[in-house]
Structure formats: C-alpha cells, structure tokens
Amino acid sequence: MFEELDRRSTAQGEISLRRRFDPSLRVEVHEVRLADAFLMSSLFTVAEEELARLTLAAIGGGGPLDVVVGGLGLGCTARAALEDRRVRSVRVIEAAEPVIEWHRAGLVPLGAELTASGRCRFVPGDFFRAVRSDASDDDAVGDADAVLLDIDHSPRDHLHPDHAAFYTEAGLVDVRRRLRPGGAFGLWSDDPPEAGFTGILERVFAGVAAHVVEFPNPYTGETSANTVYVATTPG
Predict the structure, then answer these.
(1) Mean pLDDT score, 181-202
(2) Looking at the domain assignment, is residue 26 inside a domain?
(3) pTM, rounded to two decimals
(4) Is residue 28, in this structure, part of any structural domain at all?
(5) 125: alpha, beta or left? (left if phi > 0; alpha if psi -120 to 50)
C-alpha cells in the first residue's frame, strides 16, 4: 500500500519520494515531499502539462525551439514540452540532485522516457541563480525560446526566501533578457491569478495572460484549479 522509495538531505531540506496504491481510485500514486511541504503528485499533473502547452502555443512559427524548464518534479512539464514537434531541446534545471537521480534510475513513471530522449537534458543547479544577469557562463540559463518555471507554490508562496527577488520587476527583466524575440515565459502557480503579479508582468513583457487550468479532484469530487501565467516578448 505504501513504499518510501528514497529520502535524502538537501540544501533545501529533506526530500522524499514515495509510492502508494490508492484503493479507492485503484491507481498507483507517486508523491514528492520537501520537508513538510507537499510538492508533487502523479494524480494531479494537468496544470504542469498545460504550463508547457500554453506557453509554447504563444510562440509563433515552426521552430526549432529551445526550451528551459525550471524544476523537474515528476517530469510532466518536460515531457509535455517534448510533445511539441517544434521543440529541438529541453534543458531542465533542478536544484535537488536526488530528483534527477530518481529519473535516471527509473524510480518515477516518466524517468526512463525523459532520460532516453536525445532532446532532453538534466542540469543540476539553482534556476534562480542561473537566470540572473550576473550569472557566470557556467551557471547561466543561456538564450531560449521558452522558459517554463514550476518551483515555488506561487509568486507569493516560496520554497525558499531567496526566491522572492525573482518575482519582482528586476527579476523578471532578467528572465526576459534570456528569451529570444517572440519567446515566452510560463509560470505555474497553485493560487488564483494575482492582479499585483500580473501587473508586474505587464510592465516587463509585451503580452501577458493568466490562464485558470481546471481539473477534477477525485478526493473532493469537485473541480480544482491552478494558474498558468504566460508572458511573451515582441517577435
């Protein structure tokens, strides 16, 4: 019914991967926790997949596209990006090296598929440091057509206090500079759209949309929702 597949200490806190069988739904569920925070469940992946689809849909042309993903999780955003035939490469920056190791060892459902893909590469590192304008060449994100971010719970609810600076105008200018003309930045949030954060995006980017992504919640019998922000640069 329940198995802890791995538990490690990281700079962000203790991270664990567990697998359990849900008898009411009759499905196997993989879950990731960081300290006391619930990070990811294989039951709820719709919004993580839509993060890639909505952001890439905002980019015109036939490609090829180079994509940077901040945060690996269970690999759902990276896999959804690879489904777009225009995508030439997906580079996933992940601060917790055990998460990368879980994928390479096949401990998570999409691990073997992503590891075997010649278009996908895992990069150990801190996304928030790598995206800054003063990042060293070794750490920098580099140029990209799309940057997809799914690390914090929301623009206001962060896994680490150091992340807060990214969600300011100066932090978003840094990510805009990484985007090629016509590129797009996408952000997943567990909270409803925030007018204050949308306003910051509008001061930095040419076009901004906040998409509410709804999905069924089998535990409540109702519909849950996440937000995907998509911001674009001029073509």
Answers:
(1) 97
(2) no
(3) 0.94
(4) no
(5) left
Determine, yes or no, domain membership for 167: yes
Q: Is residue 158 part of a domain?
A: yes
How many folded domains does the chain comprise?
Answer: 1
Q: What is the pLDDT of residues 86-107, one digit of tens each?
A: 999 999 999 999 999 999 999 9
Which amino acid, one-letter code, is at 113? Answer: E
User: According to the model, what pLDDT value does residue 137 have?
Assistant: 60
For the CA atoms of the chain, what is the radius of gyration?
A: 17
Q: What is the span of the domain harbouring residue 117?
A: 44-232
Q: What is the CATH number of the domain that holds 97?
A: 3.40.50.150
Task: Identify the CA nearest to 209 among candidates 228, 191, 226.
Answer: 228
